[in-house]
Amino acid sequence: MDSEHNKEKVREFFQRFVAADVQGALSLLDESVVWRAMGRDGGLPMSGEMDKAAIADLIVAVKDAFPDSMNLTPIGWTAEGGRVAVEMESFGIKGNGTVYNNLYHFLVIMKEGKIALVKEYMDTCHVKKVFVDEN
User: Fold this and answer.
1) What are the residue boundaries of the SnoaL-like domain, all occurrences included (predicted)?
2) Facing residues of 9 across strands?
3) Which residues pair with 115 in a beta bridge?
4) pTM for this model (two decimals)
5) For residue 84, what is the enclosing H or E element?
6) How many degrees, rounded to 5, is the angle at CA 63 between CA 60 and CA 69?
7) Residues 84 and 7: beta-carbon distance below 8 Å
8) What pLDDT is recorded for position 64?
9) How many CB atoms lie within 10 A of CB 36?
10) Does CATH place domain 3-133 in 3.40.50.620?
11) Domain extents in the chain
């Protein structure tokens, strides 16, 4: 697959992710996909690795946390071969009124037209403040 095709698949995945289209999002993932949310020693509940089933759970959890949806806006793209890097900004308002507005870098590795690996880098202090400290 060429870089532009891979970039489009990643764009489609994140669109389906924020739309809470679980089956549509999962259809773009390789069966052995791993999503690695960076964070040392699992210090946050969302750091560590997720398999395909856990990614489905994440999509549902995001929908539940943001009843009016959360947006993910791409800021910049780099694609080369099977590697797609995308910078994104999130914005959503939780059910309790708290604003979540984070910055991300995702490195996505494609395998035979499917997403095989996602590495997620984010502001973990903001995640902790909004999802851990407020609970």
Assistant:
1) 10-117
2) none
3) 29, 110
4) 0.92
5) strand 83-93
6) 155
7) yes
8) 93
9) 15
10) no
11) 3-133
